[in-house]
Specification:
homodimer, 341 residues, 60s Ribosomal Protein L30, Chain: A, Phosphoribosyl-aminoimidazole Synthetase, Chain A, domain 2, 2 domains, 5-stranded mixed sheet, 14 strands
Chain lengths: 341, 341
């Protein structure tokens, strides 16, 4: 891959994305405030201690198409940043947004998009405290980009970091994975007829996290967006310097997602979800947490693997395949599914 | 102007921009947290009370060209959001950024831009605690957009709101106005030869604000970016529901900016500054504050007018022209100087 120009893979949420970010930002000297969590953690959000601890995250959202089954870019922009703050263990309380839109964009579509964004924030009782709106000349931007920032409070002091998985932990997912990525990729590839009733899973994970926070022994949490489950598990494994072993047969994946993945030749484990959580939790609470999730409507919540200290494999994710073999589940590289979020 | 599609004027920081934002966001129910300052204030930043008060602001930066005399889009993105938080009366402590870049963009340029951004944040001892990097396919975005969020602490409890100007106040500007807007507009219009030694004034206003905060009696502060001095003064006048009268002769404007404005047929009062502050202050401290600013290197700091309660004109800005007449200085409308920030 070129070292001189930006390529799509640099933005796809996989290894190249990480490498470029490290290249650009490694020189930053002030990466966090006091004992907070900052840039060096490359976690979902930052923790800024200021009397109370503030958790915050920023993300820019581009998606093609901007309206899709199950949502639109406005719903996605609100949901995505809420989820980054929620999986850190915080209660989201405030949001800011910045909209950049192309000259000639229909105001009616802009209203639909912003209304969806507002609806998500309001349903979560998150105040929209500020924002920005810019217009770029026709042809200088493809339709619309929305950046959102969500600020949360660390209420009970529990904080979930990618680096805190522990040997013995069970890995839990809160539901089926890859729904969002499968829908968007199918639309981009022009096979919308094959999508059927599948919709993006785009929704806040605040309820999942409130259930998880009721338990002692949740160590790490992450929403598997760009790069999918494969990327999230690799983050846990590398930052905690432990080995994660996943059982392919236990991963909940909808039949429609499996079918689309086969048709597209894409591993569903790298397809984004936009309303799911991956958790690394104490084995003693794992069954009970899955039970609590299922009882609250998360019927596909499942234990899919475990964490261990195995110096031959630490930092890596191992996948026990249905055929019975074991392979390394790498960090996704390449363009993966471009522009899904 | 069309009601159905987005036009450039919708993003230019003037009246149409304000109208569209109000149309899109008037339905938001949760606009602030407790007694904080939120969306309904349409001020530079939001105040989020969470134990300590947090002040925060988001902005997305697009500028054409992305490198210009005196800076580049990275320096601008850091400076702009720092300044929005600083003019609220807060000490900026943390920043997050989100970069969206076009496929094929040179990595060397991206490094220069990000280095400039980092340099500004570090010179201000502001931690970069998080960020995001996305790539859009070639042709879907013109080069690069950077969104930045800055979070600040309201140290001494003083807070400066557009709505707090008081009758009798003097209006102060911290230096020459329109430098940034003149440079960018001249570059866009292809008359770079006429720019001469003029450079963008892009720089943090934190030092100006520290000097101002040493005084009791500063009521409102604003950085006159998009829409220029005209927009900032109109914000004070309309939100405080008072009359502001400005004396054209007292406004510090560089000869080069005057010359470029004439050549371009643009009122310098609507040209953006990116390193200046407009203040509304108690008349008893006005001279002393100007003196303090000048002593600290802000040699063009000046009193340019005053605030009064005049029910015939409240909400409006009056300009006493050099010719001796008085005219209403309207909120800028139309495209003004497109895409300067």
């Amino acid at each position: 891959m070129s070292e001189d120009i930006v390529v799509l893979a640099h933005g796809a949420g996989g290894k190249e994305n990480e490498d470029l970010i490290k290249k650009l930002f490694s020189k930053v000297k002030y990466k966090r405030i006091n004992n907070g969590v900052g840039l060096e953690a490359f976690d979902d959000g930052a923790v800024i201690p200021t009397g109370n601890n503030i958790v915050t995250s920023i993300d820019s959202y581009t998606v093609n198409p901007i309206f899709f089954p199950g949502g639109n870019i406005g719903k996605l922009a609100a949901t995505g940043s809420i989820n980054d703050v929620a999986v850190m263990g915080a209660d989201p309380i405030a949001a800011l947004d910045s909209i950049i839109v192309e000259e000639g964009f229909p105001i009616s579509d802009l209203l639909k998009i912003v209304d969806s964004m507002i609806e998500v924030f309001e349903s979560e009782k998150i105040a929209i405290v500020g924002g920005d709106l810019k217009v770029m000349p026709k042809g200088k931007l493809d339709k619309i980009i929305i950046s959102t920032v969500v600020i949360g409070k660390l209420g009970d002091g529990k904080i979930y970091l990618d680096s805190k998985a522990k040997p013995g932990d069970k890995i839990i997912v809160s539901g089926t994975i890859g729904d969002h990525g499968a829908v968007i990729t199918a639309l981009q590839m022009g096979i919308e007829a094959e999508i059927g009733n599948l919709v993006s899973d785009c929704q806040p994970v605040t309820k999942v996290m409130r259930i998880a926070r009721d338990f002692e022994g949740v160590h790490a949490a992450k929403d598997p967006t760009r790069g999918g489950l494969a990327m999230s598990l690799n983050e846990f494994a590398s930052k905690s310097n432990l080995t994660i072993e996943i059982d392919e047969e236990l991963i909940p994946i909808r039949d429609e997602v499996k079918a689309l993945s086969e048709m597209l030749g894409i591993d569903p484990l790298i397809l984004a979800s936009e309303g799911k959580v991956v958790l690394s939790v104490d084995p003693e609470i794992a069954d009970e947490l899955v039970h609590a999730l299922r009882k609250n409507g998360y019927e596909y919540a499942s234990i899919i693997g475990h964490v261990r200290n195995d110096k031959d494999w630490n930092g890596l994710v191992l996948l026990r395949t249905k055929a019975g073999g074991i392979r390394i589940l790498d960090k996704p590289t390449g363009e993966i599914t471009p522009r899904i979020c």
